[in-house]
Structure prediction request, 535 residues.
Amino acid sequence: MTQETVTAEPETAPRAEAAGSRGGRATRVAVSAAAGLIMFLAFPPNVFGPDEGSPSGLWPLAPVGVAVLALALRGLRPWAGALAGLVCGLFFFIPILPGLRPIGTDVWLGLSVVQALYFAPMGAAMAYVSRSRLWPLWVAGLWVAQELVRGRAPLGGFPWARLAFAQTDTPFTAFAALGGAPLVSFATALSGTLLAFAVLAVAARGLKAAALAVAGALAVPLAGLAVPTGAGTGGESAVVAVIQGNVPRSGMDFLGQRQAVLNNHIARTRELAAQVRSGEVPQPDLVVWPENASDIDPYNDPEARRLIDAVVKEVGAPVLVGALTSTPDGTMVENRGIVWDPQDGPGEHYTKRHPVPFGEYIPFRDVLTKIISRLERVPRDFARGTEDNTVMMDGVPVGDVICFEVAYDGIVRDAAEARILVVQTNNATYGRTSLPWQQLAMSRLRAVEHDRTVLVAATSGISAIVAPDGTLVDKSREFTPDVQVARVPLRASVTISDRLGGLPEWLLALVGVTGVGLALTARRRASHPGPGEAA
Prediction:
């Protein structure tokens, strides 16, 4: 046994299975599939919740799923670990992304397979370090490394379904205020690997080591409970209103309902104005419409401009209007959040910086549209915004994030320099699936991460007002018109996570890479002992 080996863990069975037992490897692959399904159940919505579901999944299953995968990979050769990791990824992503089926079953399954591929190198690395002394630490770091790469490449990445996004109302949540979503993922994975360590220690009759490992697995979330959230500085507040106008029909067909969708949001805003006049609700300081509230360009369509201008004057507060506009040369589209002032009309705006590949722009358009005719439904690519995502609304700095940009740490971090966060989104295509719930979960985690109120405005739901501690002040039902009004704090505090920026993610990923490096060095020394060393 080398100095890198954990003495309290069973040796015989893992070595035998790693040596080439087909039955053993098949069992490991099956267990890896179970791990993927277990982790999937940790994400919202909780199917056992009331009515539409609960905004939190069965969150304790996230570390349990990591533990099961770690046990399945223990002692396997890297190539077998890669296979088991891939299988785990497939059984995780396929059930977590079916909300993409309205776009096409091929899109759903294709993206699921692409995302699962990232679990293959992670599985190989997890198997490789699984006999190192500090393997629970290395594996937790490898999980962050996988999420780091998956969230950046290709085409800007797809950071959906990170472990952190299953922990938005749990003892792990507060870690977001210290190190953002990466630290939450790391803490969740570390609890899981410590549980796996405990199982192995029990099998080896190392009861003391098992007890210590269980204590460590519990200590991680308990430490999270000690981190204060939602207690930042800034005594000012503002009355905000979130408008959910709804769409006539769900699915891809919403694209052909431009006038109806705009009319719905105007109608709900007039309803708000009437409530203000009657004294039912206080006068809002700012109003938020969702993404795609106006797919009719209000700069170029006189009637759309007239309608929006009239209702903004009627409500008497600036409205952040989600609109699609043409670029000056007419060749591309911009997805904008436009500040519409009651006196001055359209003013500052934010243009979405991360358009959705294949949804808002077509990579390699000339080639792919000839192969996949459905891509022609996106006739013009969306332009990529370059400006800052903070806009002023009645003197209040508002950070705007549009749709799935909420999954990207850097974009939200930039917006959090403002005093309140807004997520404008259009979930009509993905209605009554898990995707709106998962997006709401991300918004709740961002509130804690940056100590900011988050306003989620969705065309068809789920819209919400989220307090800086991540709790839901208000939440809409899907495909139901809704007007939400609340007085919320305007925070000026800066969290530790904000100060550190992207550093925690890179450092935690480096932990995993370091573990692989140390394991490689130890095995080389064992294979080629130096003078005076035992083989």
